[in-house]
């Protein structure tokens, strides 16, 4: 099955925050039979979050290197980056994963 990952999932993956992902979604992410896609826009959002300090990378890493590390983590995880010009309806069955965070109480 193919799944389209939104920015929040990518951030949890980069930071290794599995506890912020529901059990059902964690199971989908762990299933090697699934493939994952994201848009270049989500990648741009991740880079922006790194640049403004919302995603903290290892200390001593400059912003450019931190952004590159974040993007490399996504690619190494096997997520295919879909260009904006690709029509989403041209993709074979694709499920969206956007609302997956486990509710927390403040």
Task: Give the key terms.
single chain; 106 residues; alpha/beta; four-stranded parallel sheet; 4 helices; 16% strand; globular; disordered C terminus
Verbal overview:
The protein has 106 residues and is an alpha/beta fold. Helix content is 41%, strand content 16%. A 4-stranded parallel β-sheet has the order 3-2-1-4. The protein is globular. The N and C termini lie far apart (35 Å). Residues 99-106 have low confidence and may be disordered.
**Strand order in the sheet with the most strands:** 3-2-1-4
State the separation between the terminal residues, measured CA to CA. 35 Å
* Computed Rg: 14 Å
Structural class category: alpha/beta
Structural topology:
Elements (H helix, E strand, L loop, with lengths): L1 E4 L1 H9 L7 H8 L4 E5 H12 L11 H14 L2 E4 L11 E4 L9
Helix pairs in contact: 3-4
Summarize the structure.
With 106 residues, the chain is of the alpha/beta class.
